[in-house]
């Protein structure tokens, strides 16, 4: 193969596999083998964890490069090139907020049970103290906007805390956010004083 191409980088979900599947298309395995045998470096880019992605491409029996965990872990020629770690304090704060939901016995439900509706990707539920939890999910391959009018929860406005970012967002009348592909956001809403 005579080419000036030196490197190919590609996403996994919706490109090399059916969405959320662990099985790489057989024809893709063959193409990856041919490209790497021709001296072209092949880079797998995914939000998935390295261990699961590596298993997915084991059938190539070739040394591939990986940009995984949403770019937080980069491996070149089977060696760690870059690892971005979260601060322990930050992880503990997020876990404290999320474990409080479990301790409360919190159960959320989708706004719609119709999987073709974007409302099936918006979940809400009320905690025993009256606070609301709202989660925006995105099962799509591209970023999507999710919207919820707070008056649907029985209040004109509420104080909003982003449990993922561990930040207070102040008093809001609506939640309107762009969610990255295969991403999510979780909010805790408390009555405004």
List keywords for this structure.
193 residues, alpha+beta, six-stranded antiparallel β-sheet, 3 helices, elongated
In whole angstroms, the N-to-C terminal distance is 69 Å
Structural class: alpha+beta
- Spatially, the strands of the biggest sheet line up as 6-7-8-13-10-11
Task: Report mean pLDDT, rounded to a whole number.
Answer: 88
> Which word captures the global form?
elongated
**Total DSSP E strands:** 13
Low-confidence stretches: none
Measured as a percent range, the helix fraction is 10-25%
SSE sequence, one letter per element: EHEHEEEHEEEEEEEE
Rg, alpha carbons: 21 Å
Number of helices: 3
The main β sheet shows up as: 6 strands, antiparallel
**Percentage of β-strand residues:** 25-35%
Set out the fold topology.
Elements: E1 7-11, H1 26-37, E2 41-45, H2 50-56, E3 65-68, E4 73-76, E5 79-83, H3 88-104, E6 109-110, E7 122-126, E8 132-137, E9 144-149, E10 158-162, E11 167-172, E12 174-179, E13 184-191
Parallel strand pairs: 1-2, 2-3
Antiparallel strand pairs: 3-4, 4-5, 6-7, 7-8, 8-13, 9-12, 10-11, 10-13
